[in-house]
Amino acid sequence: MSKIRAAITGVGGYVPDYVLTNNELEKMVETSDEWIVTRTGIRERRILKGENLGVSVMAIEAAKELLAKTQTDPKEIDAVIFATVTPDNIFPAASNLVANAIGAVNAFSYDMAAACSGFLFALHTGAAYIESGRCKKVVVIGGDRMSSIVDYTDRATCIIFGDGAACVLLEPTAEDDGLIDSVLRSDGSGFQYLHMKGGGSAMPATEETVANRYHYIHQEGSAVFKFAVTNMANVSEEIMRRNNLKGEDIAYLIAHQANKRIIDATAHRIGVPDEKVLMNIEKYGNTTAGTIPLLLWDFEKQLKKGDKIVFAAFGGGFTWGALYLKWTYNS
Description:
By secondary structure, the chain is of the alpha/beta class. It folds into two domains: about 5-175, Thiolase/Chalcone synthase (Peroxisomal Thiolase, Chain A, domain 1); about 180-325, Thiolase/Chalcone synthase (Peroxisomal Thiolase, Chain A, domain 1). The protein has helices spanning about 20-25, 35-40, 55-70, 95-100, 120-130, 155-160, 205-210, 220-240, 260-270, 280-285, 290-300; strands spanning about 5-15, 20, 45, 80-85, 110, 140-145, 165-175, 180-185, 195, 220, 250-255, 275-280, 310-315, 320-325.
């Protein structure tokens, strides 16, 4: 009997209309378009504008597109897993709001917080439900409204992040495709370099925490860069070694879009040439859990059945990981 794997059978996505360019940021903080592009590869990012709009607004639109494209009855969805660090509320989960809005009345749903690695962690988890036979259709979402926790007076972070969400449908496959292997890691000692101090149970919101700007992202860029370059490349190399893959075997490297230099370093380490590295960082920036599914959304028509793909990510926590997947369909 063939091994049952989880296959991606469709992709949906959404980004807000408002474009925040580097030139506009030049008017907000001491920076320049040249400085930002040289160090990150980012030229613009999307920002969700409007009162009382959370990340679920984007995820709902992405999920609706996914259901329409795959002609999926929402009542057939068994689970919705939403990777995000910017849920609308501490509770209920943003995934609950999405499932309700799309009519997934028979699904259980929950959020997963693993920062920029969140989508890979959620994809791994969703695949386990499929492989076990407990679920037949799982929607995995990655998305963040990073503008809600970015300090636009802090030039170290405000140039990097944007808003967006995308999702995939996972279904069983008995063919030689789908999610084949994953390597996931975490290290809580990285807290000091990338975190948000306020808002959790250790430091609930007070006048003091707000005044001290503890409810915004804090990042020590050089330290995070060093950890990311090393660890994202390490797990990518490990997953290729475990599956007897070489650079020429890989159709595409789909890496978290945080910094072009980190992506380039990972590609160089595993021997994947530039033309096989998918990137959209220049127009979306870092959407945290949204970057990898947004890449799938942007490049879906380019992906072909049987393509061997390596996913890689690194994020706050620290969290990092790599997945090896064979693409299932032609668009």
